[in-house]
Amino acid sequence: MLEYSVRESIADMEVYEVETIDADIIVNANENNYPTPQVVRDAVSAVVPQFPFNRYPPMNSENLREVIAKELDVDMSCIQIGNGSSELLEKVCYAFGGAGKKIAVPWPSFSMYGEYAALADSEPLRYNLTKEGYVDPDAVIDMCKKEKPALLIICNPNNPTGNYNELADMEKIIANVDCPVVMDEAYMEFADGKAVAPNDMRPLNKLWLVAGSTLSLLNKYNNFMVFRTFSKAYGLAGMRCGYGLGSHKLMRELSKVILPYCVNAFSLIVAECVYKNKLAYKEQIKLIRAERDNMAAALKDLGFYVYDTATNFVCFRPEGELAKKMAQAYQTKYGKDKQGLEAAGKYLFKELLSQSILPRDFTGHPVLTGCLRITVGTPEENIKIMEAIKNALA
């Protein structure tokens, strides 16, 4: 019999899994369900016939870094590219974590933060969000002074609740902690933020790229990094490409743990085509925001608690009399293995599955008990989703 051992931090780790059930409407992974703009398809198609599949990609993703640097008026040395922003999150934990160190991660938030910290042999140090899902700046600052983490991660807007935290609150944290800060802004394009740093001298036609984001603070502070992704607003989840910006010193340390040729050449080319044609996505993003707000309002009217959201998804749970009736319905139809809010949320999850709609199931989460998270689909998909929810409640 084969005997083996793995690192202790890995042995106790759960495998990251999400539902992979076949469904007609897939709204569980916060993908962009909208079609790729034709101008981007044309740009990619023009590249394919002469694409050098036999050659390695640029060693350090220089082609994409150059395009982003030019748009955001930063030096290329302040940018790193990864296989999605998730890889950058993993690598930043390697770079700044290690045995005996703490990495502060939000709770409830993206579950992989704690896993990445553990993979770096660091102690995941959870700090609680408010019950509404927001970051409490003063509480985070006090926690950092007391616990002295080696790295602080903030998710803004937060996944899976959807809350957007104002730029002033994020700046307050950055200005008052002693450790490097990671601002995970995977969903920032959907936030429609307005604020920018007073000293941001970008021309008006570029301010929209950083409005509401800590990107506008990069010339003011050198102790934080901003991670973005092409997977959400730009619909490149299948390409696995993300980027990070920060001071030259921090990004140099991050670059040491990123492998050469880390992103494949085709993903880099597609991401480059997308970034050069960002304006083609503006109306699509605007539509997603409108559909999101309509869905949130409709769910509230049905009696659900809905977290404030500035993303491309809605997180909600039944409450009050509605929760009681849904829990009873679950036990009548599916069994008595679950109780209370968990049973209520699970009832809706199963009912949506029965109508070939796949949401994300958080019903058993210790903080988000009873919650489902639904990605905003196309207008046609959203109509079907709301009809299915109403049918389940009927």
Describe the structure.
This protein is of the alpha/beta class and 394 residues long. The chain has 14 helices and 13 strands. It has helices at 8-11, 38-47, 62-72, 84-96, 112-119, 137-147, 167-176, 204-207, 248-255, 265-276, 282-301, 320-333, 340-354, 379-393, and strands at residues 25-26, 79-82, 102-107, 123-128, 151-155, 181-184, 224-229, 242-246, 304-306, 313-318, 357-358, 360-362, 371-375. Strands 2-8-7-6-5-3-4 form a 7-stranded mixed β-sheet, with helices on both faces. Helix 2 (38-47) packs across helix 10, helix 4 (84-96) packs across helix 5 (112-119) and helix 13 (340-354) crosses helix 14. The longest helix is centred in the C-terminal third of the chain and has 20 residues, at 282-301. 47% of the residues are buried. The model has no long low-confidence stretch (mean pLDDT 95).
